[in-house]
Amino acid sequence: METTGPAPATANASPSTTRRLPDWLGLGAPKTATTFLAACLREHPSLYVPEVKEPHYFSFTIEEGQTLDDYASYFEDASAEQLAGEFSVSYLEHREAPTRVKAAIPEVKLIASVREPVSLLYSWYWQAKRQNFWQMERNEWDLSFEDAIERYDQLLRAVRMGSSLERWLGLFPREQIHILVQDDIKADQANEVRRLYEFLGVDPTFTPDAFRAQSTGKAVHGGVSPKAGAVGWAYGTLYRAAVVGGVRPLRKLLGERGAKDLLARLRVRDIARKVFFKRGSPPMDEATHRRLTNQLRPEVEKLESILGRDLSTWKAAER
Questions:
Q1: How does DSSP assign 273-284, residue by residue?
Q2: Backbone φ/ψ region at 289: left (φ over 0), alpha (ψ -120 to 50), beta
């Protein structure tokens, strides 16, 4: 994967105001080591990442009325010497995000990460199920992977990474976008993080503690699935009650940033994961895997063209 050398590190401030806007953005895709990457960037002394990992401003909260000044408040604690940024995995696939980013911060450095799409899709299904993206009715809890991808196109949108990157590259030059491949991170995380630091223009010799979490098997964020059907349904019921009775009122009282900051400090998701979920997920049906591999092959070919590398193993229908 080729990238250009780092540009000089300068903090990004709007010329007409004192608002602080990001110097870099992490776009996603989801389930491609973005939590690990965000941890590595947060630890670097020359970088600033807000406590809330995913503001989703350019995809969702702007549509809910959040202003650019509201968004800028996430970065107000960054020092003048630090380069500020955030990861929101919804940005990569969101159709309006590239235009919005270009209008607000046209010189921002962009970070994308990609992964073999079928495994990403399966992992994304289990996370979406855990986070109740679609559990509006009780009988939705047991929706199978096959039924979910037929019913909810947002799952497939997340894995159309080739098409998504083409949209971003239609507005931003290739040298402004650093693309990581999850396979490379797994093979040599130190090299990939060093190259990421170089792209951002900060000291590439810094070694984050996140390396230790990965090397000891204590990954920053691993995939999970419900411990049992009844336990999963109980979690779904509690999750809906918490969103309606707790999170939404908090947003009205504290604002989007205040509510997210509070929930991050309470570590609600971490506690729920330990109580209701187990590591890993059941194996995917072989016929489903073959069908999806063939269906998503054009997306892999687009990634091959963008990255300039062979991804033939991603196109193999047999595992």
A1: HHHHEEES-PPP
A2: alpha
**pLDDT at residue 249 in the model:** 72
Q: Is the pLDDT of residue 2 over 50?
A: no
What tens digit of pLDDT does each residue of 49-95 get?
A: 998 879 999 999 998 899 999 999 999 999 999 999 999 999 999 99
Name the residue with higher pLDDT: 260 or 149: 149
- Alpha carbon dihedral 221, 154, 29, 108, in 10-degree steps, equals -120
Q: Which two tokens stand for residue 212?
A: 């230790």
* Contact (Cβ atoms closer than 8 angstroms) between residue 235 and residue 272: yes
Distance from CA of residue 195 to its chain's centroid?
Answer: 19
Neighbours of 259 (CB within 10 A): 19
Q: Which residue has the tokens 């209008």?
A: 103
Distance CA 169, CA 308 (A): 14
Given a cut of 50, whether residue 206 has pLDDT beyond it is yes
Q: Is the pLDDT of residue 254 over 80?
A: no
What one-character-per-residue DSSP string does 16-43 give? TSS-B--SEEEEE-TTSSHHHHHHHHHH
Identify whether the C-beta of residue 34 lies closer than 8 Å to the C-beta of residue 88.
no
Nearest to 88 by CA among 108, 65, 107, 69: 108
Beta-bridge partners for 114: 181
Tell me which residue has tokens 């205040």.
Answer: 258
The domains of the chain, with CATH numbers, are: 24-118+158-223+303-315 (3.40.50.300)
